[in-house]
Amino acid sequence: xxxxxxxxxxxxxxxxxxxxxxxxxxxxxxxxxxxxxxxxxxxxxxxxxxxxxxxxxxxxxxxxxxxxxxxxxxxxxxxxxxxxxxxxxxxxxxxxxxxxxxxxxxxxxxxxxxxxxxxxxxxxxxxxxxxxxxxxxxxxxxxxxxxxxxxxxxxxxxxxxxxxxxxxxxxxxxxxxxxxxxxxxxxxxxxxxxxxxxxxxxxxxxxxxxxxxxxxxxxxxxxxxxxxxxxxxxxxxxxxxxxxxxxxxxxxxxxxxxxxxxxxxxxxxxxxxxxxxxxxxxxxxxxxxxxxxxxxxxxxxxxxxxxxxxxxxxxxxxxxxxxxxxxxxxxxxxxxxxxxxxxxxxxxxxxxxxxxxxxxxxxxxxxx
Amino acid sequence: xxxxxxxxxxxxxxxxxxxxxxxxxxxxxxxxxxxxxxxxxxxxxxxxxxxxxxxxxxxxxxxxxxxxxxxxxxxxxxxxxxxxxxxxxxxxxxxxxxxxxxxxxxxxxxxxxxxxxxxxxxxxxxxxxxxxxxxxxxxxxxxxxxxxxxxxxxxxxxxxxxxxxxxxxxxxxxxxxxxxxxxxxxxxxxxxxxxxxxxxxxxxxxxxxxxxxxxxxxxxxxxxxxxxxxxxxxxxxxxxxxxxxxxxxxxxxxxxxxxxxxxxxxxx
Amino acid sequence: xxxxxxxxxxxxxxxxxxxxxxxxxxxxxxxxxxxxxxxxxxxxxxxxxxxxxxxxxxxxxxxxxxxxxxxxxxxxxxxxxxxxxxxxxxxxxxxxxxxxxxxxxxxxxxxxxxxxxxxxxxxxxxxxxxxxxxxxxxxxxxxxxxxxxxxxxxxxxxxxxxxxxxxxxxxxxxxxxxxxxxxxxxxxxxxxxxxxxxxxxxxxxxxxxxxxxxxxxxxxxxxxxxxxxxxxxxxxxxxxxxxxxxxxxxxxxxxxxxxxxxxxxxxxxxxxxxxxxxxxxxxxxxxxxxxxxxxxx
Lengths: 368, 268, 297
Ligand SMILES: Nc1ncnc2c1ncn2[C@@H]1O[C@H](COP(=O)(O)OP(=O)(O)OP(=O)(O)O)[C@@H](O)[C@H]1O
Ligand SMILES: [Mg+2]
Fold this sequence. Notes:
The structure holds three protein chains of three kinds.
Chain A: E1 9-20, E2 23-34, E3 38-42, H1 49-57, E4 64-69, E5 72-73, E6 84-87, H2 99-103, H3 114-127, H4 143-155, E7 161-165, H5 173-190, E8 193-198, H6 201-207, E9 210-215, E10 218-223, H7 225-230, H8 235-240, E11 245-254, E12 259-263, E13 267-271, E14 284-290, E15 296-298, E16 307-318, E17 322-329, E18 336-341, E19 354-359, E20 365-367
Helix pairs in contact in A: 3-4
Chain B: H1 5-28, H2 45-51, H3 54-87, H4 93-101, H5 108-121, H6 128-152, H7 156-164, H8 169-198, H9 201-206, H10 213-220, H11 227-259
Helix pairs in contact in B: 1-11, 2-11, 3-6, 3-8, 3-10, 6-8, 7-8, 8-11
Chain C: H1 2-6, H2 9-43, E1 47-48, E2 55-56, H3 62-69, H4 71-105, H5 108-119, H6 126-137, H7 142-149, H8 164-174, H9 176-189, H10 192-200, H11 205-233, H12 237-242, H13 250-260, H14 264-296
Antiparallel strand pairs in C: 1-2
Helix pairs in contact in C: 3-14, 4-8, 4-9, 4-11, 6-8, 9-11, 10-11, 11-14, 13-14
The structure holds adenosine-5'-triphosphate and magnesium ion (MG).
The site of adenosine-5'-triphosphate has 12 residues of chain A, from β2 and α1.
């Protein structure tokens, strides 16, 4: 993951609340989004991602709090005078205009000469790989092409912030992956702050510098993708991003530098305080999480690099490059999920096989 | 394959629907003076008779004035109503729209009677203006029904996109909304025009001594001698209606094609 | 409520813009529809005058007593309702198969052509259309000429013209598109996979139609019923032209009171009673529909 280029704040969201009638859609959002950052809002349907994005764009008013863009309070600044532009989920390509007219739409009041504007349009089209499509009717475009037109149309105005509301959700899987890469490249190229709304955790992980995970109108965690994945601060975030196994455990002792645990089935171990990102001190019953890929099946003759335990294969799901196993670990009530990359010399194990499994205390996450 | 009952029925039904329309030219070009079979041979004299008939010409002038005014005003009112109905939420919207659409499901005699009573009360002279006011009432719901469809198929994010790209509300309306609903507007204009041109009851009640085309036709239906001329007139009117409807349909389809939307068929 | 209290331009102006937008047509409807209907109701309680003073501003229920007491009016109401119900029944029953045909059999790209064809006759001069039915059904009309010509009858049939039946036929023709379109729209909305599911679950085609298609088309049928029933009650041209003396309906009486006898209060009372009758019957339709829909569940 790239580091944040420079830490100059572009958008500051301060304790923003939003009500729709009685419905409390945003419940005290605080966030600082830096200039040039690729920022994502990630969360399940109905959590308020679109609402937050639209308050930044100026389509929705906030009930309380403040939104600052480039240091200026946006209160009472309407959408058409904010330094933001939006790429809509439906792309909102004007169907009665050509591609060129769509891309040049925002330049109507631009004082430049028609020739200069035409050049700007051509450049914008080139940037999104649509050179030569200028005179096409907008409704005769494919989904991916519409997406590009929408991008070019927004970027041609050189906004300080580009807002994208689930821009890839209408595309098929292949196209989506292509566009993800292109969006990342484009963002690096233009250096504009991107705020992307998505409910697809993979997409957010792949594309973003930082991600805000939202549930029910609140930001549950705001971190870079790696931290979010390795150190989720709640079970909810952990379950929303990827797969995580949970087993019960106990905190035996806690000192400044170490937490001593007794984990069901895995036994006693020590972890670092950073592995308890939810913070706080607690003793007694807790829950311990680990990702499927942090467990490794040990084949004949392989030695464990760290710790090991025994388990029985309860379910096998073959995925081509990967195989997922549900394994009943000795001493653990519920089976845990484990994933192995398929490489030559590592046969896929059958149901009911008993096997040794390696794990590492460093991969554990503690949830209170 | 089974006997295609449904298809046969549908074609028979079409014959039933079109029977009067097909008869019309038969009698219009018929040389005989009675509207009955057998036909008496081809003649254009009834059309020629239309040319020098001053009272008919006046009725046509009146009807055209009324129909054009009505179609413009009704469509304008319809645009407001359809826009309000499809884009904004406010308390009392349902009942308000309901009242506006009410003439669609009211016995027309009652509408006419009610207007007559009020016009007499406020001493509005019966005549052209009264007919226009009445026809607007009758036509507006049809315009709204047509325009609603046009406005409904308008994606809200198109407006937001234009606004986001720096346009104002008004320029957004001009640059985006108006061009996209234009087919609906044209259909609405044409349909209101046709309805007004053909409306009889309202004009009969509140028209005073003003003669519109339907009133003229109605008065002539009582005189057997005038009937063949009316058939000729009717033939022309039918052709006009079909022409206007075809234009409306063509514009609608082209609009559908131009915006790449799916054709969901028909007006209303 | 924090939102509306502090609320900013965009949301607050949403409702505001809505009112601005709706007001021209709404004010028009209030002035040209609401106020006149109210005036008719008020007028129906005033006294008829004569000469210069047409209406005497004196409250009375005499008009209602007179209107309801007149056996001719009662006959006309009954006949109007009967004719309208028959017209509605005939129109809807005739319309259903064709709506079904267009929705289920006709290929999608041909659908709008069919709808277009069906609406064309509706847009051609109403008076002439009605008159032509007279020509078709008349003493020496198309039907009689044809039957005579074929030697099927010796004398022209008289029972096919100038009666209630002719009125029903003519109105069923006039309101055909009004019945077809709502039913078509309802049928179009039916998810085709539901029907396949029905047959998949072992229902026969006929049973699928009865248990799936028909109930789902019911809102359209009710819409068609209302949109045909209500205006036909107010039609007076058709009865006058093709109805003959016993084809006269209540609308003819209203016209008589207002335009010939100049008795506005009595005419208003008759109109109000007619509106009430229409309203009550329409409500019954709607209630029957609701009961029907509930029964389905
Ligand atoms: N105009 C509105 N009026 C009332 N409630 C609204 C309005 N817009 C959104 N909401 C509600 O606010 C909540 C958040 O909506 P929002 O569209 O922000 O969700 P989202 O996170 O974008 O979900 P999705 O992934 O489904 O797009 C939802 O419960 C929604 O029902
Ligand atoms: Mg959303």
